[in-house]
Amino acid sequence: MARFTGAALAVGSLAFATLVTYALKTWADIDNPSSVYLLAVASVAFASGTMAAVATAIGSFVLYNFLFVEPKFSLAVAEAQSVLTLLLLLLVGVIVGRLTSLGRDRAAQAARREREARALFAITRALASSPSTEAALGAVVERLVAESEVDRAWIALGPTTVRERVVADSDPSSDPPVSSHHALLRRDPAEADARWVRIHAPSVARRPASASGEVLRVEMVAGEETFGSLYARRRERAGNPTIETSRLLSVAADQSAQALRRDRLARRALDVEVAERSDAAKSALLDLVSHELRTPLAAIRASAGSLADRSIKLTDGERHDVAEAIDVEVMRLNRLVENLLDMSRLQAGRVSPDIEVIPLRDAIESVLERFDRTLGGRRVETNVPDDVPPVLADATYLEQVIANLIENAARYTPREAPIHVTAASVGRGVDICVEDGGPGVSDEDMGRIFERFFRARGRGTGSGTGLGLALVKGLVETMNGSVSAARSGLGGLAIRVHLPAAEPPR
C-alpha cells in the first residue's frame, strides 16, 4: 500500500511540476525553469522516502528533456549546455531527495524515540507509584497498546506457560487470543542479540487458534526467577516487529518482573519481621508469666501459709498486715490480668468506648484513692486548675489510663522521687501530664516506650510487663485522643495525654 501511495504522489508531483514549468517557460518567458522539478523531488522525498525521491528525480530528468529541451519530444540533446543542465537536474534532484528523506527519517526516528521514552516513563511511574505491582499491570498493558504497533496486550503470571493466569488485559471484555504458534523474544544475558523466534507451544496444540493476528511473547524474568509472560498481538504479520516495539515490550517485561520480585522480597521480609515480632512477644509473655505472675503468687502463698500455720503466733495487728499484703498482691495480679485482657481486646478491635463528659479532678482523685495501698504511701502531687474544662472520654478507660501512668511512674522511680499529675487547657482539648523525678528514658528508647512488652533500659530498678504504656496509647486513641512522651522538668519522664474538651454548658 505504501508503494502505491508513493508512486501516486510521484506521478502527481511530476505532473504539477510539468504544468508549472510549461507556464513559466511559455508565459513568463523563463529560459530554464528546471528547478521547479526540485520542489517535486523534495516533496516526494519528505512524504515517501528516498526511493520515491530518486524515482522522481529520474522522472524529472526524462520529462524535462522530453518536453522542454531541443529537439522536443525526443530524448536526444542538441546542445552541450542542455546536457549539463539535465545532468545537474538529475544530480541535484537525487541529492535533494536524499537529504530531504534523511531529514524526514531522522525526524520520524526522533518522534518514535520520544514516544518510546514517554511510554517507558509512564510504565515506570505506574509500577513505582502503585501500592502493588499487580495493580499497576493494567496501566502497563494499556500503555503498550497506546504507544506501539500492537492492538492488544496482556500479562499472565505463573512459573510455566501451562500454569499461567491472566492478571492484566488491555481488552478484558473477551478472553485473550490463543494460538499454538507465537513469536518469542530470545535475549542473551548481554542483550546484544535479541531476536524473535517463532515457536510451537505444545500446551495449546489442541486448542483453537485465535483470530487473525500474530501473538508475541516476552518472558518476565528477574534474577533466577520466572514470573510469567508479557503477551501482545499484532494484526499485521509482515516481518518482525520494529526495533522500538521490541525494545518497549522487552523493557516493560523486565521492569514488571523486577517490580514483582521486589514485592515478593518485601512480603518475605515482612513475614520474617512478623515472625521475629511474634517470637519476641512470646518470649516477653513467657517472661511475664515466669516473673510477674510468679512473684505475687509466691508472696500470696507465703502470707497465706503464715496465717494457716497455727505454730506461728500472730497478733491482731500482724494478722491485719499479712491480710493487707495479700490484698495488695491480689490487686496487683488483677491489674496485670486486666491489662492483658484489655490489650487483647484492643488488638482484636473489640474496644468501643462510651464517651461522656467527665470532670478531670474527680477522675484523678478516684484513681489515687483506689491505688493508695498499691502506691505504698507515696505522695502524688496534683494540680488541676478550676478553669480546666471537663473532657469527652470513657470513664472506665480514662481512670485506667491515669492509673497506668501513675503506676508506671511509681514502679520505675525511687520512693523519694516526686510524681506530679497536672492538667491544662490546650486549644480545643485538655492535656493531662504525669511526670516523675526518676532516671528518665534515653533518647534511643523514647520512641519505643509505647510498644508492647518493651521495657526501657536503665529505667530504675523496677520490673514491669511492658504493657502499661502500650495500653495507655491504645485506649487514648480509641477516645479520639493522642499521647506523647518527653523529658520531664523534674528530671525523669513525662507522659502527656491530649483529650478533646467538652463544650461548656449554656
Keywords:
six-stranded mixed sheet; elongated
Structure, briefly:
The chain has 506 residues and is an alpha+beta fold. The protein contains 11 helices and 13 strands.
Structure description:
The structure is a single chain. With about 500 residues, the protein is an alpha+beta fold. The chain has 11 helices and 13 strands. The protein starts with a helix and ends in a 6-residue tail after the last strand.
Largest sheet: 6 strands, mixed
Number of helices: 11
The share of residues in helices is 40-55%
Strand order in space, largest sheet: 2-1-6-5-3-4
Low-confidence stretches: 204-210
Q: How many individual β-strands? A: 13
Cα distance spanning the termini:
86 Å
Percent of residues in beta strands? 15-25%
Mean pLDDT: 77
Structural class: alpha+beta
General shape: elongated
Radius of gyration, whole Å: 44 Å
Order of helices and strands: HHHHHEEEEEEHHEHEEHEEHHEE
Topology of this protein?
Layout (H helix, E strand, L loop, with lengths): L1 H25 L9 H13 L1 H19 L11 H50 L3 H15 L4 E6 L7 E5 L11 E6 L8 E6 L13 E9 L2 E10 L8 H66 L7 H33 L7 E3 L1 H11 L9 E4 L7 E3 L1 H17 L7 E8 L2 E8 L6 H4 L21 H11 L3 E6 L5 E8 L6
Parallel strand pairs: 3-5, 8-10
Antiparallel strand pairs: 1-2, 1-6, 3-4, 5-6, 7-9, 10-11, 11-13, 12-13
